[in-house]
Amino acid sequence: MKIFARAAIILAIAVSSMTGAYADNYPTGECSLNADSSTITLTVSNGGGESFACTASCQYKITGQRPLQTFGCNYALGANTPEKTACDLNGGSADYFSELRPTKFVCQPR
Questions:
Q1: Which helix (H) or strand (E) holds 9?
Q2: Closest to 109 in 3D by CA, of 87, 85, 80, 76
Q3: Which residue has better confidence, 2 or 94?
Q4: How far apart are CA 71 and CA 75, in angstroms?
Q5: Which secondary-structure segment (H or E) carries 7?
Q6: Other Cβ atoms within 10 Å of 73 Cβ, number
Q7: Do 79 and 51 form a contact (C-beta atoms < 8 A)?
């Protein structure tokens, strides 16, 4: 019984260390508002040596309107891609956007 418990602990440590190593090389993506809240920009990067196909979204509100809307973007990230703009959404005037929720994204190796 003790052998199985020890084996389970060793396996758990091995899996967690592999996951941590992969997380260090996983792409990043973040939506942000520009200084006058007229444009939402999705900024992405990939510090790893693997290429990815990604999709990202963030929810936002337009000034004076109640419902949340969703800005979505599909993009490809090559290996070792420095920070760059993948997509943007132009509102057209200052203070067009009033709220921006956290970015959600997922990537798959290509």
A1: helix 2-24
A2: 76
A3: 94
A4: 13
A5: helix 2-24
A6: 20
A7: yes
